[in-house]
Amino acid sequence: MKKSILYIPLGFMLIATAMSCDNTGKSGSNTAYDEKPAAAANQVIEYTNLIVDLSNKNSDYVVRLVKNADRVEEILKEKSNPVFLGSIIKPIMIPAFNHSKITVDKPVDALNKADQAFFKEKVAGFISSFDKIKATYAKLDDYLKAQDFKDDKGAKGLALADSIRNDAQVFFDQKVVLMKRVNEVADASEVIILKDSPLKDYIIAMKADMQAVRNYINLLEEGGEDYNKISAAAQTAYDGLEKDQAAHAALNLANAEKESKGSSYKSFCDSYHEFLLMAKRMMRDAKEKGTMTESQLESLNNSLDTMIGRYNSFTK
Predict the structure, then answer these.
(1) Mean per-residue pLDDT over the chain, rounded
(2) d(Cα 8, Cα 4) in Å, to the nearest integer?
(3) Nearest to residue 126, comparing CAs of 83, 68, 182?
(4) Do 125 and 139 touch, CB atoms closer than 8 A?
(5) Is 123:178 a contact under the CB 8 Å cutoff?
(6) Please, what is the angle between helix 200-223 and helix 294-315, to 10°?
(7) What is the number of alpha carbons within 13 Å of residue 158 lying toward its C-beta?
(8) What is the pLDDT of residues 168-179, one digit of tens each?
């Protein structure tokens, strides 16, 4: 795969919700929240969801910056026609709007003291790393617009592209650490919220589906360059997805309908079905050509994003 694809598994590794209990409904290792009231648990979930939203949004943008940096390097190293550098456009980032009083930079009081200190430090560092990448890319963008590569034979451009990639790896390493704690804290709080919820079975099913899809895409991203080597594993994983989708789509919707969530759950199941149809086509094509393309992987990730969005609509 291209170098930029190496960043995608980390960039998209976490489902866009902080809720993450397992199929048994048991809590994770963080027992500090076991006795918290539901109101406090909801506050923790709202805060951790803000972190996940920030992470996903910033990660997506960093992946796009890295792809541009890779393209700049490719053109400069191959001594291609420099006119192609003018077609590399700085990605647009739409600002997020948060109407809640809870903000990502101020950990909520419902968190224990250790977690408050952790998130205050790690979130600040995560944002700082993101800002550093943006600032470096701004220099690269100016470099391209001024066509300074005509003066230094691309030396500064290559150095800036390399810095962007290195800083991106630091950024994604920080994300892994941050999200590990998010999951632990959210696990414990979710158990409290879901304990007597009529929507528990649907939420657990959807989360299991999203994680299974994520694992399947990871398999393709890691080995899709030589698809024939992973075709058997990919087919086995796909068969499991198909089986789970059918089982979860057949869940009794009585409780969901009582909460006016029936259509939302059906919408999620439909998006999962569409994902499977797309994946089936791509697997057939990859088997014929011997490779899974970056464009195909991006389409699968986009389809998972649709599932995530519909899950988020269900849980609102």
Answers:
(1) 85
(2) 7
(3) 182
(4) no
(5) yes
(6) 170
(7) 10
(8) 999 999 999 999
CA 24, CA 32: separation in Å to the nearest integer? 19
Residues in the chain: 316
For residue 220, the tally of other CB atoms under 10 A from its CB is: 23
Q: What share of the chain is helix, strand, coil (3-state, %, to 5)?
A: 75, 0, 25
Whether 245 and 269 have beta carbons less than 8 Å apart is answered as yes
| Burial of 169 from C-beta contacts in 10 A (0-12 / 13-18 / 19+) | middle
DSSP state of 18: S
Question: Residues near 121 by Cβ (< 8 Å), separated by ≥ 6?
Answer: none
- Rounded to the nearest 10°, the torsion over CA 114, 119, 121, 125 is 160
d(CA 225, CA 291): 5
215-220's contacts with Cβ under 8 Å and 24+ in sequence apart are 216/241, 216/279, 217/12, 217/297, 217/300, 217/301, 217/304, 218/9, 218/13, 220/292, 220/297, 220/300
What distance lies between CA 257 and its chain's CA centroid? 30
Residue 129 is predicted with a pLDDT of 98
* Whole-prediction pTM: 0.68
What are the C-alpha distances in Å from 279 to residues 1, 101, 244, 274, 292? 18, 41, 15, 9, 11
Q: How far apart are the first and last CA of the chain?
A: 37
Residue carrying structure tokens 């994003």: 305
Reduced to 3 states (helix: H, G, I; strand: E, B; else coil), residue 107 is coil
Nearest to 248 by CA among 215, 272, 229: 272
Q: Cα–Cα distance between 158 and 235 in angstroms, integer?
A: 40
Beta carbons of 1 and 221 less than 8 angstroms apart: yes
Q: How far apart are CA 171 and CA 168, in angstroms?
A: 5
Does 5 score more than 70 pLDDT? no
Q: Contact at 8 Å (CB) between 116 and 168?
A: no
pLDDT, tens only, 252-264: 999 999 999 999 9
